């Protein structure tokens, strides 16, 4: 910057929450004021607004709505009534806690997680591996099929089944073609 230049700063603006509350009070609409009417009022009252005025307005309106300063209903913002009861959160309300009789002191709540081992605790015996398999994980392998099958007597070699019928599905019977002479 050169020493002879003078920067034209815009006049200092009040904070956005103050401007928003002033706009809502001045507009004094029955069902509250929407975002565009609040923005127009601020623009007309305070001339030199920053470039991101709409974004700043949205951010501050959302903060004020979440903190409970403003009520948002049907796309309109209104000031919260100081005599109104506080709004309840969503879901089922918690059960009321019964007061404890005097003289009873509650122990501190247990911490989360597994309790630490004590120095005097006996060491745990090592885990014994189950000798049910070959030490592999996952699905066991198929066993080789015995020659006689499961639960059957061993077969004699080369002979058909005792009923005289071969194993499996019988072949499809094809109709016999006959010649018709004319």
Helix content: 10-25%
What would you report as the Rg, rounded to the nearest angstrom? 44 Å
> What would you call the shape?
flat
Distance between the termini: 119 Å
What is the SS-derived class?
mainly alpha
Query: Low-confidence parts, pLDDT < 50 over ≥5 residues?
Result: 4-9
Proportion in β-strands: under 5%
Write the H/E string, N to C: HHHEE
Number of helices: 3
Give the spatial strand order of the biggest sheet. Answer: 1-2
The biggest beta sheet reads: 2 strands, antiparallel
Mean pLDDT: 79
Number of strands: 2
Overview of this protein structure:
- The protein is mainly α and 182 residues long.
- It has three helices and two strands, in the order H-H-H-E-E.
- It has helices at residues 16-27, 35-45, 53-67, and strands spanning 70-73, 76-79.
- A two-stranded antiparallel sheet has the order 1-2.
- A hairpin with a 2-residue loop joins strand 1 and strand 2 (76-79).
- The chain is flat and about 110 Å long.
- It starts with 15 loop residues before the first helix and ends in a 103-residue tail after the last strand.
What order do the helices and strands come in, and which of them pair?
Blueprint: H1 16-27, H2 35-45, H3 53-67, E1 70-73, E2 76-79
Antiparallel strand pairs: 1-2
